[in-house]
Amino acid sequence: EAQVTQNPRYLITVTGKKLTVTCSQNMNHEYMSWYRQDPGLGLRQIYYSMNVEVTDKGDVPEGYKVSRKEKRNFPLILESPSPNQTSLYFCASSPWTGANEKLFFGSGTQLSVL
Amino acid sequence: AQSVAQPEDQVNVAEGNPLTVKCTYSVSGNPYLFWYVQYPNRGLQFLLKYITGDNLVKGSYGFEAEFNKSQTSFHLKKPSALVSDSALYFCAVRATASKLTFGTGTRLQVTL
């Protein structure tokens, strides 16, 4: 089944404790991205990647890191989480051609930073 | 900088009536426009997109959207709403760069 898999679904952590949210897709998509969803603010892009070893900042990259060492994986790293990073996070992937371009989203990760 | 505005936080419509969810955008260059829907407990799903060509785009579940360049709008429409259409709808825009910008979302509530 074609899918984007995020783990974990729920995560509670404390300020300053490094964490990684994993994202993997099995559709051989070139494009992958991370978003956070907050009430009243909609979806905001954190980072995106056009292909392996190519990443770029979205609208809210501060406090986050990403890497794209393999085409299928795009982990989101919070080196020192803070309470303002409490949010619902989504990973997504897409083929990178105009006709086929559409995002496939993971199920989301609800992160709480205490 | 590119931006998307969804001016209505919530749209209420009776089942069977037509619905419109509004979206306006601002980009430099030609826009790529998208609608996504977030159903409760079902994640985010692609509905439709405008890349080029016909201004009227048809998508999943009977939805359609009209691209209006002069008004910089891409409103989502459906001729006859269903209770099952109740969800959170997001408009998104991308210009030639790879960054995708979403609106703040509009909650659609369809009642019997």
Question: What features would you describe in this structure?
Answer:
The complex is a heterodimer of chains A (114) and B (112). Chain A contains no helices and eleven strands. With 114 residues, chain A is an all-beta fold. The mean pLDDT of chain A is 94. In chain B, strand 8 and strand 9 (73-78) form a beta hairpin. The radius of gyration of chain B is 13 Å and the shape is globular. The N and C termini of chain B lie far apart (41 Å). The chains are: A mainly beta (114), B mainly beta (112). At the A-B interface, strand 4, strand 5 and strand 10 of A face strand 5, strand 6 and strand 11 of B.
Could you write a compact summary of the structure shown?
The complex is a heterodimer of chains A (114) and B (112). Chain A is mainly β and 114 residues long. In chain A, 0% of the residues lie in helices and 50% in strands.
Detail the poorly predicted runs of chain B. none
Q: From the structure provided, what is the oligomeric state, counting identical versus distinct chains?
A: heterodimer
* Low-pLDDT residue spans of chain A: none
Task: Please estimate the helix content of chain B.
Answer: under 10%
Rg of chain A (CA only): 13 Å
Percentage beta strand of chain B: over 45%
Coarse shape of chain A? globular
Tell me about the largest β-sheet of chain B: 6 strands, mixed
Proportion of helical residues of chain A:
under 10%
Beta-strand residue percentage of chain A: over 45%
Average pLDDT for all residues of chain B? 93
Tell how many strands the DSSP assignment of chain B holds: 12
Helix count from the secondary structure assignment of chain A: 0
Query: What is the chain-wise order of helices and strands of chain A?
Result: EEEEEEEEEEE
The total count of helices of chain B amounts to: 0
Specify the overall morphology of chain B: globular
Q: What distance separates the N and C termini of chain B?
A: 41 Å
Return the string of H and E elements of chain B.
Answer: EEEEEEEEEEEE
